[in-house]
# Entry
Amino acid sequence: MRIALVGPARDLHLQRWGRALQKAGADVVFVGLEPPPPDATPYYSVGPPIAHPRWIDFYRRSQALRELLEALEVTVAHPFHLTPSGVWVWLSGFRPYVPYAMGADLFEYTPAAPPLRYSWSLQNTAPSLPRLAAAWLRRRFLPPFLRQTLQEAAFALADNYELCKAKKFFEKVKKYIELPTGPDLEGELEKAERVGILLPRGLTLFYQADVILQAARQYLAAQGRLAFFCLAGPYPPHPHLAHQAKCLEKQFPDKFFLFEKVLPKREMKNLWQRSLAFVSAPRYDGYSYSLAEGRAYGALPLISALPAYQELLTHGYNAWFIEPFTTENLTQAFFEVEKYLIEPPFWPQRNLAWIQRFSNLQQSARLFLSLLEKALYKEDSRP
# Structure
């Protein structure tokens, strides 16, 4: 069985999932429109590579996608993200396919979409009239394509229950991580010297960095003892928020540390081990990779009360909910967390045990391949 992982091959989540499938014994090829990435092989571009493909590019090359998948003798297409990859495979006519539908991916197309200025496509730019018009058109016309894409899928991986519940994959597991490697992880958790709060979601309105930076400023101005480690590399930063973060770095040079590039795995591990807690508050409902990773490394999740979070986490047991998610409430949470610089933390072993049981990437890859074989067998056995 050959699986074509279709999508933006430079996406770190796509690469992790592809490598996990390969380690589980699957024959995986990566397919997309972008230039070949260094960490996803073998990679095939559908026509000449395009650095920043547009919707029209996917539409024009939908037939070419099908021809390439057939030429590669692909058994099943596995588009990563419903938009544009899932819709692209659906338009191509190639069957069967199994999409990976992520919460952020679906955010703009929900029936009750939040304000346009928080949309994924506008989160790092000023909302000009053409961009607002384009976002409105997508929300107006794409939902039927998304419904059809899900309806014709063999099944779907999903971290957004509301839009994908008919194709739900794994009842309680929504995101899978590469478990930290090394000697005794539990021993490492106990030895970690935790002095700060990690802000792993970038400098975007989409992840409420505006609220988080204001809370960090208020906390540090009030002589808070914890430092902040702010990651700006994962997503293109909003210009205004990037300016705020740099001002905080200058104002509190020994307490606010800004990392503007994606960190290597070893450096990221060290940063997690120095973090007592971390903040995750996206404006969409979905269980995030950074939340799973932070739990594995023993940091306390400071989170908004999203349905997906409430389903899997409990305030005061393995997480700390901030509701409503405001500057004042988040600042207060920072001060409340300070006591665990001295007191024994209550969450690390509880979270690690859950991650090891339910969120192991390799285990999930093997289970996915097993379900995929069953689904394909049902397709073949239909009269």
Summary: The CA atoms of residues 66 and 94 lie 6 Å apart. The first helix runs from residue 12 to 23. The chain has 16 helices and twelve strands. Confidence is low (pLDDT under 50) at residues 160-183.
